[in-house]
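Per-record layout

source: Mesorhizobium waimense
name: diguanylate cyclase
length: 402
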Amino acid sequence: MGSAEFILIINLFVAGLLAAAFMMIAIHDVGRVSARWLAFGYMLGMAYFAIEFSIPAFDNARPVVVTAFAVFLGATIAFNGGLAHKYGVTPPWAPMLAFLAVASVAVWFVQDLPRHSLTRMMAYQLPYAAMQFAALGIVGSSRQRRGRLDALLMAVLAASAMQFASKPFIAHALGGWGANPQAYGQTVYALVSQSLGTVFGFALALLALAILVRDVLAEATSKSETDTLSRLLNRGGFERHAEIALKDAVRQGVPVALVIADLDHFKSINDSFGHAAGDRVIETFAGFLREAAAEHHVAGRIGGEEFAIILPGTNLAAARLFAEGARSAFGALPIDSLPVEHRCTASFGVAELHAGEDFSDLLRRADEALYQAKGSGRDCVRVSTEPAARQDRAMPKVSGRG
């Protein structure tokens, strides 16, 4: 057994492990279609390596060589389909499958050309390069927010495409790819080609796996930080994201404000109309808050009937206008499960971050402003203009918060 055949066996088992890894993700999250396609792609990779290993056993290798080519090209197409599903792009199945058919027919006919013909070698390798460039286009055309792992994946896809495109020239430089398909495994080029395939195939698989795991963890974190009823951040999630927003605002040198809202007389709504009506009130206010918030705002339900929103890039005056607009609009909204004439109101406290303060200081001052709004008859907005003392202090006692 030559070195190239040994690498083929290693690739066969590695492809199997990667297929199993992607399948485990698909089983863990049945809605993650991308993992199923990636697993299928590496299963096809296993089939390709098995076929390649068996070629020396055939006297007429043309059908086997073309089958191996089609199976491996199919594996790259399945990989592209998985990437498309992951990045929210419509998979270009029709053009990719048409390309598979045309390329396979071309590889069949170029078998009549001299073994070391550059045209023959390019007909075999360039389709793989084309599919890697197609994968690069899929990731690049996605409207999803991309991070460092995604950028690295794009770079490796580009490099992989280039190594496929360069293989005919590498084969020529290394003395060709054997006098016949059966002799391919004994050539220096086969060793180099299989080694390159192992490196890039493993790198792409690990990156795709890391990206899927990243997404699974991010979604799990998001679910743990989301309030089920309001579909806003819960208190823990709000505080974590608010801290990040404050740090970003301070680093960029822009103002940041916090608005806290509390639904007025909420207990009486539950007592008079039932908890289902109270839930509708919370859902209505949360829905209004989501619509009013910009993409860079951070909104959450931080208590039973208490909500908060961080407004990066917003000073105290603009935050007060936001709160006044929210108060006025919410007070005019009809709410399901409540009588037509019944309107709900909310009280608001507003504070802007001062130099030297942290999130807890900002939250304390906004909460004090909210208490003032409650003490002023509710359905109003109050602002905090003075920096909080950086020490524990008692909150004003106002009865009837709710």
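summary: The chain has two domains: 3-223, 235-384. The longest strand covers residues 256-263.
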